[in-house]
Amino acid sequence: MKTSHDLIVIGGGSAGYAAARTAQETGADVAIVDQGPLGGLCILRGCMPTKAILRSSEVIALTRRAVEFGLAPAQTKADLAAIIARKDRLVREFAEDRIKALHDPRFTLYEERATFRSSEELQVGRHVMKAKAFIIATGSVPSRIPIPGLEETGYLTSDDLLELKVQPASLLVFGGGPVATELAQFYQRIGTAVTLIQRAQHLHSHLDEDMARPLEARFREEGMAVYTGAQLQRCTKQGPTKTVHFMLEGREKTASGELILQALGRRPNIDGLNLEAAQVKVRNGRPLVNAEMRTSQPHIFAVGDAADVHNVVHEAILQGEIAAYNAVHPLRPPRRLDDRLTCEVVFTDPQVATVGLTEKACQRRDIPYLVASHPFSDHGKALCLGETHGQVKLLCRPKTGELLGAHLVGPEAGELIHELIAVMYYHGTVEDLFRIPHYHPTLAEILTYPAEALAAQLG
Q: Is the Cβ–Cβ distance between 197 and 169 less than 8 Å?
């Protein structure tokens, strides 16, 4: 067993593998340390398993609308065990590809636990190893939130729920972010009575309010109980029934269910790394990193969910590539993370997709902007599809018309956002977007309506 490498990457998920691959391509001697199971958060417990089960709920929801489209009513019933079995099969296939890549002879893979002994040494299983640089890519774990009685009452995290094979009759969901909303809608659609409780005044509180309201409306139409602006007080249990007590508009309310999903966020998975010994500064549970993905120790980097900067896979991959380049090229000008094109997609129905600055961000940073929006309820292709919830909203600079941000809630928002990302990548303007040909009738046409409205306002 070797005792030293040019670079040691801790974690073999999306960010870690991208870092290892990037460094190895320069000829560096790279080791990956991952205690397993191999595959990474995205493949095993995040992106891929959730999208697999969401497809099942999308199909069942559409079949229930058969009459709306002139079809005979369809009787469809969900089989959660079969849905999870399909998910497991797909995850195994995805994981096999990643595991094969990690076992590539270009890398040295150690399936062991890693703990820092100092800023220069890493305990890997029974061995002590050194490297010129280290990259922490250990992903994230569900946050533990101190709600009185919650531990005693019992709850599940998203990791647990993805393995559940017996469908609950009712489910309480704590949280209003992507994980909470995707899983809440999945269970509501397959026949579980869901109650969602969110602390902020609207779902997806990091986005603008008008991006959340169409989603909340769809949830309520589908029968979900949604409470926003609610303050969780305590949890109790009587027999198999779990009850949450919360304050809403100055009054205490209660909601009960068979299970509780605690989806109040995730945190960097750094427990046990002993970052104190490495003298890596940690604040509020996350390693502090700069735009070069360096921690307080210049030769130790943190990327992906472990850095808790932008917790989406394509950003994690980019961060891994930046960190690896900087780690193996200490004498070259460093690469830096540019958050101008930060984007996110939430795979609810309607989908939510966003890139660039929100109105909240512009107001907080005192950035002048113009804004215009257009609803899907006034768009021909959306009407033909029967998908009229939501809108598209564009923000641009008042003088030049350069796009600052673009936000959609509506059908296929996760696909439509990529045209807007492409325009912003090239610093395009609303006039560019308006003049680009768009085929009729398509959902993409809707992007031209707010673009034309903004182009007319430019000075």
A: no
- Domain coordinates in residue numbering, the chain: 4-142+267-328, 150-264, 340-455
- For 415, the 3-state DSSP assignment is helix
Fold of 4-142+267-328: FAD/NAD(P)-binding domain (3.50.50)
Structure confidence by residue, pLDDT tens digits, 265-275: 999 999 999 99
What is the bridge-based pairing of β-strands 370-375 and 391-396? antiparallel
Whether pLDDT at 3 is above 90:
no
Domain boundaries 150-264, CATH class: alpha beta
Quick one: pLDDT at residue 41? Answer: 84
Q: Write down the pLDDT at residue 13.
A: 93
Q: Which CATH superfamily is domain 340-455 in?
A: FAD/NAD-linked reductase, C-terminal dimerisation domain (3.30.390.30)
What helix, strand, coil percent values describe the chain, rounded to 5?
35, 25, 40
Cis peptide leading into 368, omega within 30 of 0? no
pLDDT at 74 over 90: no
What would the mean pLDDT of 161-167 be, rounded to a whole number?
A: 96
Q: Is 314 a catalytic residue?
A: no
* The one catalytic residue among 127, 389, 427, 440: 440
pLDDT recorded at residue 202: 96
**344: amino acid identity, one letter:** E
User: Hey, what amino acid is at 238?
Assistant: Q
Read off the pLDDT of each residue in 415-430 and give the average, rounded to a whole number.
97
Is 449:368 a contact under the CB 8 Å cutoff?
Answer: no
End-to-end CA distance of the chain: 67
